[in-house]
Amino acid sequence: MIKLGILDFDTSHAVEFTKRLNHPEGTPKDQFVEGAQVVIGCAGESKLSPERIAGYANEMKKFGIPLVEKPTDMIGKVDGMLIEAVDGTVHYERAKPFLEAGIPCFIDKPFTCSVADAKKILELSEKKKAPVFSSSSLRYAPDIVQYAADPQHGKLVGCAVYGPSPLSEVPERNAGLYHYGIHAVEMLYTLMGAGCKRVTSTHEKGVDLVTGQWKDGRVATVRGIRDGASSYGFVGFAEKGIKPVTVGTSVIYRELLKQIVEFFKAGKSPVEPAVMLEIVAFIEAANKSGANHGAGESVQQ
Hints:
Blueprint: E1 2-7, H1 13-22, E2 36-42, H2 53-62, E3 80-83, H3 91-100, E4 105-107, H4 115-128, E5 132-133, H5 142-149, E6 156-164, H6 182-192, E7 196-204, E8 207-214, E9 219-225, E10 233-238, E11 241-246, H7 252-266, H8 273-291, E12 297-298
Parallel strand pairs: 1-2, 1-3, 3-4, 4-5, 6-9
Antiparallel strand pairs: 6-10, 7-8, 7-12, 8-9, 10-11
């Protein structure tokens, strides 16, 4: 059994992941994931959602999870770490002591909020031989996985992805699409793969609309919704057909956790580090474009 620690309780993921891994009474059995358990946690601190910490810490205590005051108190007691801070701007500093100790880390979305921080994490990961994995749960939504694996529609030539994209209440933390739009961007990359070279973004109060141009000539869009009806989905434009797909979310934590457990077992991220870095670069470029009246921005890594 893989022993995991959780750092930062300013997100429901701390509780929801523990439910599915540790199987406390009241958790539906169809949500169970085997192979790892949360054995220790640290509530941490938050400059983005501090009001959430106490409530989630109480829930973790009810599950019987021992809590420590300092994150580094978990070193030596775990095989891997779940870095759960909702604030992506702190992910490098949160992961750093564990990576330096050679402990592999799952870093929740957004991986980071800058290309510079993403590079620092990946460089430290490689130096210390401590693998890292970051992903939105939407990447593993069955509707997306099934479409991406289906050969019947032929090559995907483009797509229009959409999803909710509320903005951070603290603009300098999880700016723009980093906050919640990351889910739709992860969906985009699950379908299109890496290779985006340039983006343009229209930013309005109720929406971000980002167009990406891939190196092979394909074009795709992300609509981050803040006004009107909102759900997850996409339209796939393929060689042999056009298909609208509504993406359900009922089992997305379970499916992500399966990938997380396999990551800790295998010691290799199911998402290539270069792809994790490009997603950060895509959002960085989109945010710049949206703030500059839709000017084109290169996706620079």
